[in-house]
Amino acid sequence: MNITLIQPFTGGTDVEPPHSLACIFAALDKAGHRCTLIDLQQCKVRERWEEIFKNTPVDLVGLTGMTPQVQDAHEIAARVKASRPDVRIILGGVHATLLPEQTLKEFPFFDILVIGEGEDTVVELSSRLEDRLPYDDVAGIAYRKDGSIVITPPRPRITNLDSLPDHHAYYDFDFYLKNNSFETSDKAISLIVSRGCPYNCQFCATRNFWTLKYNNKSVDKALGEIRGVMRRGAEYIKFRDSTFVINKKWVREFCERIIKEKLRFRWAANARVDLVDYDLFKLMKKAGLDTICFGVESGSQRMLDFYGKGVTIEQIEKAFAVCKRLRLRTGAYYMLGALTETREEMDATFRLAKRLNAAWSWCFLFMPLPGSELYQYYIDQGCTFDYSRIRSDKAAFSSAGYSIAELEEKRAGWYQELNKRPNRLSSGINALLDVRSIYDLRRVTRKVRRFCGRMLRRLPV
Ligand code: B12
Ligand code: SF4
After folding, report:
1. pTM
2. Strand partners, 2
């Protein structure tokens, strides 16, 4: 079957590989289908995607979408139907999974939704569609039938992630190596080596998407993938796993193998403050860990409890102290503007952020995400949703007597204040202090050269 997968534009400055569709592409390719991925995150493709689409043989179209993208995905579906009314359109991803009934009611151009992990479902579904067979017994889908919506039983999670084909050959790797939003001048790419998260944060959609089941690829498989992307030029890897440090035994083995096998790359990952462990983090640093990011969220214990974060301010401060001792670069995510949050609580977050002094601080305006417990809380409070406002720099609702515009201004002010140059300078000094090998020296020299070049270009001529 000819299948065209279309990645909508994610907007903003975050440019990352279309992992979801690349995974689907890899699974379909392995099953013998002929696929094309049209990636609207690339400007040159965005401008002429309809022309590319018209010139590609197609029997089935697959789209993906987080909540903020679902409207764009639907507009794409409308354009596809306008030129090829006979082609069925599947939508997969977070939004379709968490709100299947609403999605089918609201967006008429999506024909079938794939709920949850998509690899096995899409392969089974495509072969049914190809053979013109009924698909009502395919687990993990939703569709319309005789004016009502049918949701089939959920498909069990894939237990062995190693069985999935490598997906990095299925997107424009070189484009993403050169164009990414990571805080490094090295050639960087993102990788995901686990699925799910066993924690229970009330603002997070991960839990309801993946269920509480968490699993890793094997260390062998992860290292194989890393070697593959390094061969293609990657020097820096941003692990996009929801929380990288969950299975400490796995992380320890992973780091020991990197050291033993002399794999030279630097990396960044996410962790929870309550999982920081001095010896483990020391080992991670030895294995190339460059930046560790924490969802700090708030400087108010009441808000942390409201968010169901399950950590204390003391644990946050301790975790950052350990990272400071290890001279590890830190990143911190904060939220402001949730319902019930007071002005004093927002100020407490800002004060904590100043104390923690992370190299990178990302301030998000709180948004209730479909699939999270707090989404339901907002609905119970009578709130209605405009999906296009679910962006990190946009406020969805006013809070603590601040208007939407005031909250957006406050966020922007925090962001500027917290990401001032001295933090970067101190992380640059740390990089110099951390030179342990020729490899490190070469990397730092290259960075200094690039920095000086940038500075020289800024001088008036
Ligand atoms: C990487 C990532 C990003 C990347 C996206 C890169 C990209 N081009 O896709 C970047 C950094 C850009 C990003 C941005 C945002 N993200 Co984000 N992101 C993630 C993250 C960490 C991993 C996603 C991923 O690639 N997973 C791996 C793939 C394999 O899994 P998957 O995407 O779920 O795909 C599987 C299935 O869904 C299904 N599937 C998906 N699509 C399709 C399509 C078809 C046709 C089929 C058959 C199946 C299918 O099959 C796939 C394989 O099993 C998730 C958290 C998580 N761990 O899932 C959050 C997550 C998806 N993001 C989230 C959010 C909120 C955002 C932002 C709004 C954050 C912000 N503060 O600005 C922005 C939105 C940007 C925008 N304007 O649209 C939420 C989504 C909640 C929701 N209801 O939509 C999540 C779940 C995190 C959370 N906190 O809850 N994100
Ligand atoms: S916020 Fe992080 S730790 Fe909490 S449930 Fe989501 S992914 Fe897990």
Report:
1. 0.92
2. 34
